Amino acid sequence: MKIIAYFMIVLAFNSVIISAHGENAFAHEGLILGMDAHAYPVQFINNHGQPEGLLVDIWTQWAYEANIPIRFKAVADDELEQQLMTQHIDLHIGASRDLNVDNIAFSAALSSVNHYLYLHQALSVPEKINELSMFKIGVIKGSLTAKLLATGFPTLNLRYYPDRHALVEAAANTEVYVIAAAEGFLRSHQVERQVKKGFLHYNRLFLHQSVFHPLVLKSNVALITRLSQLNVNTANIAKLTQKWLGKGQGASSLTLGIPHHFAPYASIGVDGLAHGLLIDIWQAWSHESGVTVDFVFDHYGANIKALKAGSLEAILGYPSTEIADTRFKRQQGLYQMKMRFFSYQEPIVDLTVLAGKRVAISTEFLSLDIIRKYLPKMDLVYMDDINAMIEASESHQVAGFIAPSALTQHYLLLAQKWQTFYQHSSLAFNANIELITLADQQYNELDVNLRQGFELLSTEELINIERKWILDPQDHTVSQTQKQLIFTEKEQAYLAQLGVLKVGYLADWKPMEFTGETGVFSGINSDIFNRIAAALGISIEPVAFHHWNELLTALYQGEVDMAGSIANIRERQNELLFSQSYWPSSWGLVTRLSEVNFFHLDDLAGLRLAVVEGYHLVPKLMREQPSLQLVLVPDIQAGLNAVTRGKADVFIDKLVNLGMTLKHTRSNILKMSILVDFSEQRSHIGIHPQHALLPPLIDKVLVTLDAPTQQAIQQKWVKHTLPSKGVHKKIWVDIVVVSVLFLLSVWGLIWLIRNSMQKKGRSRL
Q1: Is 34 helix (H, G, I), strand (E, B) or coil?
Q2: Cα distance between residue 277 and residue 265, in whole Å
Q3: What's 50's DSSP letter?
Q4: 654 with 675: CB under 8 angstroms?
Q5: Rounded to an integer, what distance in angstroms lies between the CA atom of residue 363 and that of residue 380?
Q6: Percentage of the chain exceeding pLDDT 70
Q7: Position 196 pLDDT exceeds 60
Q8: Residue ranges of the alpha helices (H) in 598-686?
Q9: Both ends of the chain: CA-CA distance in Å?
């Protein structure tokens, strides 16, 4: 998308003379502005019912500068002319010329937006749109993109969703492998991280460009004249444009200041190109964001001056006291260097012998406060760089120095001095490499775009980059701390003020969550919440419940702050906030051995189905299979007992929990199967609305849960919750069986989707 006509709102209508009375009335009464409710990112109504978008912001800025009160009103295309004729709205903030209206005047274009078909990264981009006819294409019902597809490509298999949230959820659960939307959709912070990872913004097929023109009645000459004389500050337009279009749209490159002589983190190679760990990380960021990075190498002080002057957009720096200037903004956690103590000729076994002695540190790497934490009794001396500290150690001016381990090793190897220096193994701590930008309270879109790009990098990518450049495994920091999460100053302040958060869980719902033998919160969800607490630096207090309904009620009422394994359904969205999905949540069926196998809801018609009271599944089951006779039970054990005693024909619950409970019950009359109709569902963390800023921070942690990590957590708790020795002769066989069921629930749907796609493709040939 781009802003046209020099980023200025000039409504180019015929000029007419207007009376002073008409102009004053116009300014006094204000304007009602019509808008489209579904044209993201130009104009739309958000989840809270408020108008948002590029044109909304432009008109809001225009009204502020003109001192004219305005109010936005969502208007459908087929109602637009009538709304203008009846004066329910004064003008429309921007519509396409495709509208067939006789009494409406179009102004000069304010903006344009491109519509794309975004393909999952597993799919290659075809030459023509019609080649996607075998795939389900997700699109928002009533949106301009949906209208373009329906009229221009009627043979496509469109799947409509009521809003952006529903489309995001469908993409996250791989219900669709193609998303149709306007540009900027994948850049929104509301789009789940795993969706951004699966649907890369450049893996797309162009559909159409829509140009937006403000509309007003031809007969309203007073308004036409008044608007034609007004404009918006071009600097403000540029900020609004970058806010909604992202850095990759507003500019093709980012100019980044890098410290010189900083190998193996960053340096200029013999080929004249930039190389190093940080260079590879930024190139990976460039690949995800579509923004080219221009590296500028200079010493730290010069980079600071260039940032102040505006010739650099960002620089890499360190947590030193040199930059306490409020004009700068830091993003911590880009990468952490391992810091160590080095001594000349003789190894230092006990650091207490250094009390009162001079130890060198670099002004570029560390602040005095950080060093005092580890070496409180030393006489610290600041020096300019690594070479100066090496020379001071050789001349016995200092007893040693503290510096980044990998950087120091590089210098010592180049100078052939490695054998004469020793590093103290017990003193090791991490120091952040920070991303520093100019602070601007009214404009932080650059920070947002930078942070979102890094959040798309997987832990595996960072680990591989680190292994390539940092040869000593003891100096690795990514693999030890998992992914380094980046928090803004506002986010850090929010996390710091949080008290202890209460996490609700079920006391007996193995292996997802339960109270262990020592009375502690255990299970898969305990590992998930512990990871969240550690990564965010917050404290949690587990609170056990015996029944699901009790837990859900406590969460609704704010008696607990969070709970895991919550389904994000529309009925709960007015009561709770939700994280992104984090765990497969397939449903299983338990029947008696004498019954036939059930796999679909249709198989259950007319049967007595036991289900835990309070599950979101209850109304959905009745809608889709009204002949079911529901038997409500308080918990999973009661459900199994109902089937065993003949009070119910079938019991439904989470697949993985059914598997573990059946093993503990040692029942030889019950069997289990997968309910294929609901195999694609996933679990979320439910959060009480009083913590409105918490969900996106939790999502930062959840996005690091890659497949190997999930598998390790799964195997840990499946093994842990198996019965004691002697109950089963083949304990490892049981582990394999439950693990296979878990993997089937994750991958079974993918196979079914692909098989269905192939059949559809063949049927159309």
Answers
A1: strand
A2: 5
A3: -
A4: no
A5: 11
A6: 76
A7: yes
A8: 617-624, 636-644, 655-665
A9: 37
Which pair of structure tokens corresponds to residue 709?
A: 């990590």
Q: What share of the chain is helix, strand, coil (3-state, %, to 5)?
A: 40, 25, 35
- What are residue 113's DSSP bridge partners? 210
Q: Do 107 and 55 meet the contact criterion of CB atoms below 8 Å apart?
A: no
Question: What torsion, rounded to 10 degrees, do the Cα atoms 26, 29, 31, 32 define?
Answer: -140
602, pLDDT greater than 90: no
Total residue length of the chain: 765
CA distance to 272, 507, 539, 633, 695, per residue, from 554 (Å): 62, 15, 19, 19, 19
Q: At 359, is the secondary structure helix, strand, or coil?
A: strand
In this prediction the pTM is 0.44
Q: Is it the case that residue 731 has pLDDT exceeding 60?
A: no
pLDDT band at 18 (very low <50, low <70, confident <90, very high): very low
**DSSP symbol at 126:** P
pLDDT digits (tens, 9 = 90+) for 85-108: 888 998 999 887 766 667 788 877
Place of tokens 């920091």: 477
Query: Looking at the predicted structure, is the pLDDT value of residue 673 above 90?
Result: no
What is the spatial distance between Cα 237 and Cα 241, in angstroms, rounded to a whole number? 6
Q: Is the peptide bond before 634 cis (omega within 30 degrees of 0)?
A: no
- Model confidence at 56: pLDDT above 70: yes
For residue 669, the 8-state DSSP code is S
Kindly report the average pLDDT of the chain as a whole number.
78
The DSSP code for 177 is: S
C-beta neighbour count of 77 within 10 angstroms = 17
Query: Considering only CA atoms, which of 324, 331, 329 is closest in space to residue 285?
Result: 331
Torsions phi, psi for 367 (to 5 deg):
-90, 160
Residue 178 · residue 119 · CB < 8 Å: yes
Report the C-alpha gap between 458 and 702 in whole angstroms. 11
